[in-house]
Write a structure and sequence with these properties.
about 280 residues, mainly alpha, globular, binds 2-acetamido-2-deoxy-beta-D-glucopyranose, SPARK, signal
Amino acid sequence: MRQRVSFSLTLPLTLLLLLCVYESRGGSVRNTEAIAPDISSTVNPQPFLPLLAPSPLTAFTNYSIPKLSGLCTLNFSAAGNMMSVTATDCWASFAPLLADVVCCPQFDATLATLIGQSSKYSRMLALNVTHAKYCLSDVEKILEGQGANENIQKICSIEPETLTGASCPVTEVDTFESTVDSSKLLGACRKVDLVNECCDQVCENAILDAARTIAAIGMPNSKGVNLLPEHSTRIDDCKNIVLRWLASNLDPSSANKVLRGLSNCKVNKGQHKNRKRKEN
Ligand SMILES: *[C@@H]1O[C@H](CO)[C@@H](O)[C@H](O)[C@H]1NC(C)=O
Ligand SMILES: *[C@@H]1O[C@H](CO)[C@@H](O)[C@H](O)[C@H]1NC(C)=O
Ligand SMILES: *[C@@H]1O[C@H](CO)[C@@H](O)[C@H](O)[C@H]1NC(C)=O
């Protein structure tokens, strides 16, 4: 059942995004139908993404309690049921197949939410390196205990550094909030309408704005933001900080929806390209 929640976000969105992409390129609906003939037959639309999910119950038939480091201060219950959704989305042998589409976006969203929720108390939007190592290992153990693939860290290329501030100069909540127009950011991202988001990227752009603003801190002049290239590691690292701040200002289930929605927009674009490439 949990699986269905994740997929229900992904599948209709793929169809709508296709429409959105073709409309914005001036393609007609006939064009779209030629590529996606099943859009018109609403009776049983064919999914564009593989539906290889295991039975959701399988993952929970033998729930083992993992041995944790005791050195991670993240509150694992503060992420609501995101951990078990992630375990299902990254279920054992299916994880590599669904990595970019389902497992890793959910894993990323969970990490952002865990750190975001803990920032309410720690006032920090990043873990230090030592802390990050223990926490990542603990998160993995909990997920494995619930049936997730044991190589999730490798599959999703997550290093402990991913949980730190990396090259982003702002990690404290107070600095973040005094630098960024946080009500504007929250306004753009509190509710992400997936179709509009994939077409117009309202929340994605607000996140990028905020990331560029904090990335510019400590740059040579006050217009440092102009010195940063469009895509830099520093901005990407700051985007992680922004996502954690967002997750701390939403309840876990809304945070999950927003974060997954944002990555679905990206995944579906990538997926579309991949499909094209495979067909050729
Ligand atoms: C659950 O897993 C443990 C360890 O792998 C095993 O010893 C136990 O018998 C399993 N329990 C069930 C109900 O399958
Ligand atoms: C952890 O989070 C849960 C759910 O939000 C909360 O009820 C609990 O008090 C938190 N525990 C600690 C130690 O902060
Ligand atoms: C890392 O963070 C933890 C928890 O906030 C703290 O106890 C520890 O001293 C920090 N370690 C370093 C090396 O800063």
